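Standup notes, structure subgroup. Blocker cleared on the FE2/S2 (inorganic) cluster input:
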Amino acid sequence: MTARKKPEDLRSHRWFGADDLRSFGHRSRMRQIGYDADDWRGKPVIGIINTWSDINACHAHLRARAEDVKRGVLQAGGFPLELPAISLAEPFVKPTTMLYRNFLAMETEELLRSHPIDGAILLGGCDKTTPGLIMGAISMGLPAIFCPAGPMLRGNWRGQTLGSGSDVWKYWDEKRAGKITEADWADIENGIARSFGTCMTMGTAATMMAIAEALGLTLPGASSLPAADAGHPRMCAVAGRRIVDMVWEDLTPAKILTPASFENAIKVHMAMGGSTNAIIHVVAMARRAGIALSLEQFDALSRQVPVIANVRPSGAHLMEDFFYAGGLPALMKVLVDKLDGNAMTANGRTLGENIARAEVFHPDVIRSLDQAIYAEGATAVLKGNLAPRGAVMKPSAADRRLRQHRGKAVVFRDYNHMAAEIERDDLDVTPDHVLVLQSAGPKGGPGMPEWGMLPIPRKLVRAGVRDMLRISDGRMSGTSYGACILHVSPESFVGGPLALVKTGDEIEVDVAQRRLHLHVSDEELAKRKAAWVAPAPRYERGYGRMFQEHIGQADDGCDFDFLEHGADVPEPEIH
Ligand code: FES
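Run returned:
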């Protein structure tokens, strides 16, 4: 461990400690806010990056939680300053929050860099906020703790539990099939989101919060704490106290994030039955830390780790139940022989030390390795002539018969085409067809929206069909389910093979063999490629233009090329 910092080593000392004109200005403006030298002199300044906003229901409590963090920071002799950042409310931000994940990452990095900040608390949890905040914090390199927003309470409808997303899709199909009434649907709308906090199924939010904990970037147990539990504000206060010490210890993300910690996180993701979206985010976070991860590594780890969290959509329960069952520390305890217990974490102890006392209290919710709900991990990586750089699938959430399947394609050239066709009663489609959606990738969507769980055609829903093989270059919500092959790379918008598929072509999928094959000859594909015309860019100006010019493909983590790990960015000059 490096020697503890001295007050004059603090980054913020450059703003407040010098005897010059600019420092006079900084100090006098702090006094204007109502602070005195006793507030800042010799103290680590902790930036609280807060993704609270009026429109983000998942983060409605983060304004209050920032106060809990401040309480902790003050108790430990630090100086807290709250800095708001883009909120990225998953249900509301269009065309998709994924268009803005890198925006939040840039904002986080530059908020920390441009202000007199020595350490950071990151408040987020709704899907893209976790990777966005962490990517920015990694690139800035200051000590940081991620405080997860935590899952909301279980949904309730007539005494049945309702899960975010998963039960929306389920009952929407029941409504389309005429099995529930408009009044039922209205009651479900009332009961499905009962408190602040993130989606409480194993969606992207729960997955990414768990991954942040497995990486060592949260306090132990923080990711499973329900948002409405009194332990949640206590966790935030502890994080406030701890970050002050982390600054003195100079415990930066670079000292926590190693290939071993990323391997731990991927194994936890697999055991949780986590969202497919996590692959993109983990690749992006690792690359920010200078660690290359390939889809093959995910696949190899997937084969070693069974799904043991019995949480929807792969399982039966919800995140509140997962918390009562012991939470993430208990799950990691079950996996202990597969994890590297020496990995360092934010509280200054190793992962092995943190989980030493953890126990499983409900063995149906957190299963033992020999009672797994799916023998392999959450995400399979498929390759073939349809996806030369890979595609992903969540076989644990798919109908068993579709894990090995060959069928004729029904191709939709974009979302609007799909939406118009899917409700047609004369659509030529059977349960054995393969639905293909083009133009849903990083550049084509744009922003790789969560369109990958294509709706089952209405005439088949009415006939009782609930799963079909679906393929796209988009993503799907972690709360979604079904035989959906996603993230096909390279995407159709840039001329990947997905752009060349025609209705009637045969597609074969074999999950056990990790194979995704388009039964069209190489000669015919070359002919189609030669005739393919690149679509016009989606944006002529603004952030969208920057996005489309710099966004990477899914297997590269969809980061901007200029934000990836590389040369250091200099500290700002103060003149
Ligand atoms: Fe925020 Fe699902 S909508 S986590």
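Discussed briefly. The chain has a mean pLDDT of 95.
Next: hand off to the docking folks.
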